[in-house]
Fold 2,4-diaminopentanoate dehydrogenase C-terminal domain-containing protein.
Amino acid sequence: MVVRVAQWATGAVGQEAIRGVLGAPGLDLVAVKVHDPAKAGVEVTPGVTTVATAEELLAARPDCVVYTPRTPSVGEVADLLRAGIDVVTTAFCFHPARMAAADRDLLLAAALDGGATLHGSGLNPGSFGAAVPLALSGLVRQVRRVTLTERADWSVYESTQITFDAMRFGAPPAEVTEAASDFLAFNADLFRQQVWLLGDSLGADLDEVVTRHDVATAAADVPVFDRAIAAGTVNAQRWRWTGRAGGADLVEIDCQWTVGPTDADWPPTQHGWTVTIEGDPSVSAHLMTLASLSEPRSMEDHVHAASTATAMQVVNAIPAVHAAPPGFATTADLPAVRSLQGFRA
């Protein structure tokens, strides 16, 4: 059975999702929605041109929408689900059981009304923070603790609007908090959902998920493409989301994000992602996304590889999501996701 797929949003992740759909047997790209009306009418592939409205996307009769806007809308996704269209998204809804109740109830009612399924995943939050730890747990009899550490230098990312305006790098410390930034609060909640997902899936019976957020400031100006971080403003953030039960830390995600050099007194961490399960036995895996591990590639290509991985985690999940019962399908609910295109050219 061929699944008719529409793409919603054409940023870095959206563009990679389009490539993924076009290369995957069993998926048929039928529509691409853009945010800017000026970009409508552009041919993506023979027979498919970009559209600017949800109505035009619906007219293409997709079975599933890959929803990857920078800022998600619960209302938009609910409308798609109510119309009987499955949604896979990298933007939110990683563990609906632990998201805001009003949003969860609206989305669930829409999915059940339309007979559709909603799945949220990506890289981290997503595969490295949920699918990989759960897969590794299959090697373990009893789990005592699960941790994921992430280390990334944002100075190599060209999307300075995200680095500065969304993540608040380059702002005074007092402005780099959940209370001062809607985006940081939204982003932190996605990671809290992921901690809850691991705890709920592995029987941790967590009492709470707490957030610890530390920042460090630049000792000198740091140029970043078309912007610059001024000395004395934030150029390093460390976020820790910890799931606790009975006073013990059982699940933790520890992210160290910097822009340029920092003298913050934080534990040294290898670039990329490290998943560790303390248990019987204990297992650990270090993960990276690169354009190639064997061929010379540019830094731009290596950075872009993360967008490809983020997109493909949900594109490759489309057949499983389409086959799932109506409602929510988390990473823990679906079978292991594998490449649909595989070795095919």
User: Anything to note?
Assistant: The two ends are 21 Å apart (CA to CA). The chain has two domains: 3-121+317-328, 124-297. The mean pLDDT is 97.
